[in-house]
Amino acid sequence: MTENTIFHELESGLSTHSAEDTMALGERLARALPENCALALYGDLGVGKTTLVKGIAKGMGVEQTVTSPTFNLFSIYQGRRQFLHLDAYRLKPTQSIESLMIDDFLEPPYCLLIEWPDHVPALIDSDTVKLKLSIVHPNPSGDNSGEPAEHRIQRI
Ligand SMILES: Nc1ncnc2c1ncn2[C@@H]1O[C@H](COP(=O)(O)OP(=O)(O)O)[C@@H](O)[C@H]1O
Ligand SMILES: [Mg+2]
What we know:
Elements: H1 5-12, E1 14-16, H2 19-32, E2 37-42, H3 49-59, E3 74-78, E4 82-87, H4 102-105, E5 110-115, E6 129-136, E7 150-155
Parallel strand pairs: 2-5, 2-6, 4-5
Antiparallel strand pairs: 1-7, 3-4, 6-7
Helix pairs in contact: 2-3
The structure holds adenosine-5'-diphosphate (ADP) and magnesium ion.
């Protein structure tokens, strides 16, 4: 299997059944990403965006623990390449993305991971790899048998 197989699989969507599964998928994805890349992770709170970022970071050799950036909106890690994790959730409507000076930190080779990409349209272009995450509940109408929800990741 070539490394790019994962992109084909993501076109039709992949399911994971635990946070560990999602991290393992992120590690696999990290190996298939181009040298400089930006990934936009769409989806509501709790769908697994940060979990996927942790897996991608691991796959890129980041040894520090990746946590959600808070005060600065983004964090920088060093692995086999520069790794930037932006969580635009708390970006204020009055705050321009330019004021964060993200571009200044994109030293090649880099990988930029963006949570809440709808909040930063200026950072998204046709080269951005766009993934949509969602949760599929096993039995939405009937009784909840305790089966864990399936997390879906699809390239859009
Ligand atoms: N299949 C799965 N994939 C990702 N996270 C999962 C999965 N199953 C359960 N979880 C849990 O769901 C939560 C997802 O949180 P997080 O990754 O922070 O989401 P987001 O960044 O999208 O708000 C974590 O607590 C994680 O352990
Ligand atoms: Mg998050």
